[in-house]
Structure formats: C-alpha cells, structure tokens
DNA sequence: TTTACAAATCGAAATGATTACGATAGAATA
DNA sequence: TATTCTATCGTAATCATTTCGATTTGTAAA
C-alpha cells in the first residue's frame, strides 16, 4: 500500500486531499502493526500543533470504512493498522510489544472439518499473540 | 457450573455471600452466551430497584478475576459469559442463532509451530461461528 | 443473640475513549 | 477569483467504566 493509492481511493469516494490525511496514511504505512488513536495523535501533533481530536477520530473512521485501515479492540480502546492488500484470506501473529503483525500462511479451519461435520461454519476469528524475534531477544 | 460452586469459590477467596452475587451468577449460568454489563443491569433492576452501577461492574471484575466469568470486547463494550469449568484448554464453536457453544477438542496451535519457529507465542484467540445442526435444519 | 468490623452497596462524581457540533478554513472546479 | 462543498478547529456531549465517601450488611466471635 502506497500513500498515493490511499489518496486515490479517498478521491474516488468523493473525499478531498489534505496533508493531514496523507500523513495519517504515511504513519500507518510505516507502522508495521496496530496503533492507537492516542499514538496517532502524538505523532500528528509533532507536525500540526493543536490538531483536533475530531480530525483524528473522523479520519480513522473514514479510513476504516474505505478499508484502508483495519481495527481490533484491546483494553477498552480501538487499535488500527494498515489494511492487508492481499485479497486472500489469512490470519495474523501480533507482537504484544511493538505491535508488528505477521501474516500467517496457513488457516486452521481444515483442522475442524471432521469435528464439525454436522455444523455449518460461517466465519471464524483467529489471532496469535506474543513477541516477535526482535522484541523477544531484547 | 452451579451457583453454589461459584459462591464457594467466592468464600474461599475471602469474599462474602450476597443475594445480588448469587443472582448475577444465576443470570450468566442461564444465559447461553456473552452478555453486556448493560444487559445484566437490566436483569438485576427487575429484582433490585436502584442497584448501583458500582455493584454491577465491581462484581463483573471480581468474577472475571476469580475465573467464574470470561470476557471479550465488541463495539467498545466488554461482553461476559460463564467460564468453562473444564480446566483443560479448548476453543468453541458458537451458534449464531441459538447461542449454543460447543467446546472443540482440537487446538489449532500446532499448525503454526513451523511457521512461527522464531516467534514467542504467548496466547491466542480462536472462535468458530455458524449454525448448529438443529438451527441449520430449521 | 448481640456486638464488632471488614466487606459490599449506594448515589454520584470522575475518568478515558470516542463522537458530535457550530463556526471557520481550505480544496476543487469552473 | 468566485463558488461550493468538504475538512478542520475548539469544545461540549456521550458512552462505558471506574472511583469515592457514606451507609448498609454479612459473618464470625463474644
């Protein structure tokens, strides 16, 4: 995902370019994992003194709606990361220290074909949490 | 899980019996799946007019701490269900129609030993959603 | 049964994350 | 540049949850 692509998707959907939006995208593209609204705010304040909370949260919602960002919840707050462009179904390992997300190649669903033969499976949620090699060796 | 067992665990840990606590346990034992603090409050208010939010949230926290309840987050709120008494680690299939939860025998973790050889896995979340045989055939 | 005291509850205020709003600034288009 | 929405600002409101001083209650010992 490039900033340009994100901006293009914004415009296709009738939204305007702003430097703040480009910077928000840049922030999440460079962050390899989940980040909070608070963390984004801290980052944005370095470039835009007095930026409004409205701007932070409104754009986070917009980007998630446009599927430029994905989110999950933890300890009562929402965490965001750049969306995975690969259209194929996959799961993630999430580093609890730095937030890095590693896409996993396998899906555990086949494990249960036998056990749930009589059941109709619609969806599933699967995430692994721990420490990435970098954080583990520190 | 019986109400008596829950009360016993409360006492073993130096907490007192109250009718409200017994009723909270009853509520979650009879509930088929996850319930919100708000839903519990609505239920409790039918028996205890003017019950304090403090009582609701304090006991939810206590019960989760004592592992009588388990929780997950959705749409900015915490949802609770009665904990599974079997001490062994397992996952669930959850029927989206009737709320039935079927404990699963297998855990998908071994699938990833190779892929995450350099990673330190602490925890994982895995749930399957769909229709149980009864609901599917209706 | 009564007493004593820590724990539980109440009523209400505080907190933290998020959302909403009226006024102003700014991007896009002709 | 003039026009027209959209975006942002500054601040207030909202929602779930936590906290707190005062009061009540469970429970164990007298």
From TrEMBL, chains A, B:
Assigned GO CC terms: cytoplasm
Domain of life, per lineage: Bacteria
GO BP annotations listed: negative regulation of DNA-templated transcription; regulation of secondary metabolite biosynthetic process
Gene Ontology molecular functions: DNA-binding transcription factor activity; transcription cis-regulatory region binding; zinc ion binding
Cofactor note: Binds 1 Mn(2+) or Fe(2+) ion per subunit.
Location in the cell: Cytoplasm
Cofactor list: Mn(2+); Fe(2+); Zn(2+)
Entries under InterPro entries matching the protein: FUR, Fur_C, WH-like_DNA-bd_sf, WH_DNA-bd_sf
Binding, Zn(2+): 95, 98, 132, 135
Binding site for Fe cation: 89, 124
UniProt keyword Metal-binding, yes or no: yes
Family under the similarity heading: Belongs to the Fur family.
PANTHER family: FERRIC UPTAKE REGULATION PROTEIN, ZINC UPTAKE REGULATION PROTEIN
Protein name: Transcriptional repressor
